[in-house]
């Protein structure tokens, strides 16, 4: 993995520097393995997938990706949050009803 540092500079209208922060960009190349290699030593490649995704190839075409548990869970959390945010943005709150009214109907 290669770590590239750039500097983000915010200026006001007159050009005076207000804020200077480093921005870190991480760049890595994905490891590719064949299905045969995965069959021979699956534990090795599962361990390597902990840090970076691994592309599994069959006849030089990617058939699957092997990712670590934590990375997969982060992806799932991100997707769930993204779906929730889209749902909230699309919700029509004008059709809402009073909580007290619904609670009394339910006998709560």
Task: Describe the protein.
The protein is an alpha+beta fold. The protein has a single domain (2-106), classed as 3-Layer(aba) Sandwich (YefM-like fold), CATH 3.40.1620.10. Helices cover 40% and strands 33% of the residues. The chain contains four helices and five strands; from the N terminus they run E-E-E-H-H-E-E-H-H. The strands form two sheets. It has a three-stranded mixed β-sheet with strand order 3-4-5. Strands 1-2 form a two-stranded antiparallel sheet. The chain is flat, with a radius of gyration of 24 Å. The model has no long low-confidence stretch (mean pLDDT 80).
Arrangement of strands in the largest sheet: 3-4-5
Strand count: 5
Mean pLDDT: 80
CATH fold category name? YefM-like fold
What's the CATH class, please?
A: Alpha Beta
Residue share in helix: 25-40%
Structural class: alpha+beta
Low-confidence stretches: none
Count of distinct structural domains: 1
How are the SSEs ordered, and which strands pair?
Layout: E1 2-11, E2 17-27, E3 31-34, H1 35-40, H2 42-48, E4 54-58, E5 61-66, H3 69-90, H4 99-106
Parallel strand pairs: 3-4
Antiparallel strand pairs: 1-2, 4-5
């Amino acid at each position: 993995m290669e770590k590239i540092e750039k500097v983000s500079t915010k200026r006001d209208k007159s050009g005076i520097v207000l804020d200077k922060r480093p921005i870190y960009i991480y760049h890595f190349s994905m490891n590719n393995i064949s299905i045969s290699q995965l069959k021979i030593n699956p534990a090795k490649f599962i361990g390597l997938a902990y840090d970076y995704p691994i592309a599994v190839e069959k006849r030089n075409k990617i058939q699957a990706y092997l990712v670590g548990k934590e990375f997969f869970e982060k992806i799932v959390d991100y997707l769930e949050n993204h779906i929730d945010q889209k749902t909230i943005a699309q919700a029509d709150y004008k059709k809402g009803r009073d909580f007290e009214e619904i609670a009394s109907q339910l006998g709560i």
